[in-house]
Specification:
- The structure is a single chain.
- The chain has 260 residues and is α/β, with parallel strands linked by helices.
- The chain has a domain of 167 residues: Alpha-Beta Barrel (TIM Barrel), CATH 3.20.20.370.
- The protein contains ten helices and ten strands.
- The strands form three sheets. Strands 2, 3, 4, 5, 6 and 10 form a six-stranded parallel sheet that branches. Strands 1-9 form a two-stranded antiparallel ribbon. A two-stranded parallel ribbon has the order 7-8.
- Helix 9 links the parallel strand 7 and strand 8.
- 34% of the residues are buried.
């Protein structure tokens, strides 16, 4: 019988997951990897960009090993003993490349994703030939049931990028409050309800910023601390594992299988 590689993976993923369960998995069971991606492109112009073939290889490995993708909302009801081989996949900045290189794969594998858009860039271009998702595309992705669209601020991404980290604490003020309120207003108009997920630009935040974000209605707040999220941890300060073009498939496997 002739079958495709992906058909074989579908047939064998459960068996592979069972056969490869090992000592590390028990130690890892209550740690959930939350992966942070950005752009997927054949042009490696930034460190955070992944080649399409590398991204596809990582997703195929997750699928073949029997990983189950979660939405952030599922964290609330996730049983403490049901965290083994679970993963949350996030994308920051709202790159349109997800439509080209992510959505078809995720449809094939039944994967879920969280995409955090920059409000002022939705439907536009950044740095010339760098398209971002439009609101129409965001609505399409949300209707698929596979993708939750979140917030990466409305217009503060560049502002954060120009900050020196020690200055950040003093600068969480009315500017942030107004920006998040604007994002929620536009998002609600376009998507029909407020956003639940906020990803801090450059991971920069403090207690005051978290309080402002909670007041704006965000239920899950993501940082960039390059660590695993522990089941039962703080949903307002969720660390993520940073994916970039240094993350070859071997390193990706080692990261996912590493004992915490």
């Amino acid at each position: 019988m002739n079958i495709t590689r992906r058909a074989f993976l579908k047939m064998s993923s459960a068996a592979v997951a069972f056969l490869t369960f090992s000592e590390y998995a028990a130690a890892h069971a209550k740690k959930i990897p939350v992966l942070m991606y950005h752009d997927i492109s054949p042009r490696l112009e930034e460190k955070e960009t992944l080649l399409p073939r590398l991204f596809a290889a990582q997703m195929e490995w997750l699928y073949g090993m029997g990983y189950r993708t979660l939405s952030f909302g599922e964290l609330d009801s996730l049983d403490m003993d049901d965290t083994e081989r679970t993963v949350i996949i996030t994308f920051d900045d709202g790159y349109a490349s997800f439509m080209d290189f992510g959505f078809r794969l995720f449809s094939e594998y039944g994967f879920k994703a969280n995409i955090n858009v920059i409000g002022e860039h939705v439907g536009g271009f950044v740095s010339g030939n760098d398209p971002r998702l439009s609101w129409d595309e965001c609505r399409f992705l949300a209707r698929s049931g596979m993708v939750e669209i979140g917030c990466h601020t409305y217009g503060l991404h560049t502002w954060y990028g120009n900050l020196v980290r020690p200055k950040a604490v003093a600068l969480f003020d009315e500017k942030l409050e107004n920006d998040l309120a604007l994002f929620q207003s536009v998002y609600t108009r376009e998507m029909g309800k407020p956003a639940r997920v906020l990803a801090w630009p450059y991971g920069m935040h403090d207690r005051r910023g978290i309080a402002i974000a909670k007041q704006a209605g965000f239920r899950y707040i993501l940082n960039s601390e390059n660590a695993f999220f522990e089941k039962g941890g703080n949903p307002y300060d969720i660390p993520r594992l940073i994916m970039n073009n240094d993350m070859a498939l071997r390193q990706f496997r080692e990261l996912m299988e590493r004992k915490p």
